Amino acid sequence: MINEQYIELITAYIDDSITSEQRVRLNDLIDKGEIDIDIKQMEATYKKMGQLPAPEPSDQMREAFYDMIGNEKEQQVPQKSNTWINRIEELFAPKKVPRMAFFTVIFLVGMFTGNLLTPFQDYQQQMDQLSGEVSKMRQVMMMSLLDNQSSSERLKAVNISTDIQTADKRVVTALLKTLNNDSNVNVRLASIQALLHHAENPRVRRGLIRSISRQTSPQIQVALADAMLALQETQSVDELQKLLQQNELDSTVRDKLKNTIAALS
Amino acid sequence: MNSTSDNALMLKVKEGDLDKLGLLFERYNKRLYHFFYRLTHRRDLSEDLVQGVFERILKYRNTYTNSGSFATWIFQIARNLQADHYSQNSPCEQADRDIEWEKLEGDNIIFEKEQQQEQELELLQQAINQLSDTKKETLILSRFEGFRYKEIAEIMGCSESAVKVRIFRALQELEVQMKELKRNGYD
Questions:
Q1: Helices A59-91 and B19-40 sit at what angle, rounded to 10 degrees?
Q2: Which of A227-231, B12-16, B52-56, B89-93 has the highest mean pLDDT?
Q3: Would you say the pTM of this structure is higher than 0.80?
Q4: For site-directed labelling of B183, which of A61, A146, B41, B53 has its Cα 20 to 30 A away?
Q5: CATH class of the structural domain B97-186
Q6: Would you say which domain of life the source belongs to (chain A) (predicted)?
Q7: Per-residue pLDDT averaged across A168-192, rounded?
Q8: Are the beta carbons of B165 and A4 separated by less than 8 Å?
Q9: How many domains does chain A have?
Q10: What is the domain extent for residue A234?
């Protein structure tokens, strides 16, 4: 039976976490014959395990996951309101108060607080309406500026999109169109940053991935590789590899892509 | 905390931003699938178990405390789920792959290097399949998932030294099993 202290040394050796001090000690114990196990063979077996193949999951698994998220989101809203209503019901449950008196009191309190809060509600409604209008204005402004001849105006448009809280389909499509078709590199770079603000949207992530092999500018190629790394988007590996196969690729970009693929694989 | 770190994303999920779970799914689905596949050798079951992990995360998202690494937390869930599955189902449904000696020996000519490697890997896989679940899980978490011994101890709810002993014993057993399988195959 091997001493448990030696196991500590052997396992550190096997997973390559052994310190130089431990290595000296291990060699010493082997030389003295206190450890008579073929640790090289053990290490080889451990390393060989890395060559064992495993298949890739199917697309159905991804689809099932996103369906589950969709269903959960649908249930989220009614659940919240139910809880809220239940809590109020629990708070005001008329256990001891006679029913009629209870409802009369509730009616009077309702009228009183209703009158008291009307100005506040009006104010709140106005604020909501105003912020909704500002958001719509931003969208309209962004769309019209994106069609402008001047690249600085288009750059402004892309920057405006980062102030929009939740980008709808139109905004995302416009930004992706800019990324894929705009003639100016700076505008395209800014559109990547703008799209990253909305990275939780699967449409945005898919659009960014599809854009990789369409780009010819080294700056954009590197920026997209960085974006994939920041999002840990393993789905992008195929597109990055497609780009890597292009002969006329810049050598810096080539290195960058190789590093990104290695980090994501 | 980095806003795109696993822990930050999970906290967002806890707050109700369910889209962030999509990012975590993209980061972990393959790792979890391979973990389950290496334990069960069944594709359909492995996919169901991955789905099960994310179902549990959704269900119990409010209990997430951000007190340690997200990776160890999700693999704890994975491990529990797999154990629950086998406590409810018969373990005999596990795929059992026999070595196809005839196929590997080809036309009974001297083994080429490639064939030899393939044969060695088949043997190794067969030997791993014969390990106990605990040893197999420990080896998989260490070799394939790249967890340090301390993290494995956290996932498996045991001491770090117990993990090291399991790795050591598992590798010793693999050596013995492989020799045994080779001998049976050639006899």
A1: 120
A2: B52-56
A3: no
A4: B41
A5: mainly alpha
A6: Bacteria
A7: 88
A8: yes
A9: 2
A10: 166-264
Chain A residues inside the 8 Å CB shell of B4: 230-232
Given a contact cutoff of 8 angstroms between Cβ atoms, the answer to whether A174 and A194 are in contact is: no
Residues of B in contact with A69 (CB under 8 A): 18-19, 21-22, 58
Residue range(s) occupied by CATH 1.10.1740.10 in chain B: 6-92
Question: Is residue A100 assigned to a domain?
Answer: no
What CATH number was assigned to the domain covering residues B6-92? 1.10.1740.10
Is A74 domain-assigned?
no
Where along chain B do the CATH 1.10.10.10 domains lie?
Answer: 97-186
Best residue in A10, A47, A52, A166 to probe B by mutation, most B CBs within 10 Å?
A52
| A31-90 tens-digit pLDDT | 988 888 888 899 999 999 988 988 999 999 999 999 999 988 888 765 544 555 556 555
Rounded to whole angstroms, the Cα distance separating A227 from A260 reads: 10
pLDDT at A203 over 50: yes
Size of interface A-B (CB pairs under 8 A): 121
Task: Give the ipTM of the model, two decimals please.
Answer: 0.80
State the Cα angle at A141 between A136 and A146, rounded to 5°. Answer: 130
pLDDT-derived band at B102, boundaries 50, 70, 90: very low
In chain B, the percentage of residues whose pLDDT exceeds 90 is 60
A19 at B interface, C-beta within 8 A: no
Q: What was the pLDDT predicted at B113?
A: 66
* Mean pLDDT rounded to a whole number for chain A: 82
Residues 6 or more apart whose Cβ sits within 8 Å of residue A166: A198
3-state SS record for chain A:
CCCHHHHHHHHHHHCCCCCHHHHHHHHHHHHHCCCCCCHHHHHHHHHHHHHCCCCCCCHHHHHHHHHHHHHHHHHHHHHHHHHHHHHHHHHCCCCCCCHHHHHHHHHHHHHHHHHHHHHHHHHHHHHHHHHHHHHHHHHHHHHHHHCCCCHHHHHHHHHHHCCCCCCCHHHHHHHHHHHHHCCCHHHHHHHHHHHHCCCCCHHHHHHHHHHHHHCCCHHHHHHHHHHHHHHCCHHHHHHHHHHHCCCCCCHHHHHHHHHHHHHHC
CB–CB of A11/B168 below 8 Å?
yes
Q: Which amino acid is at A188?
A: R
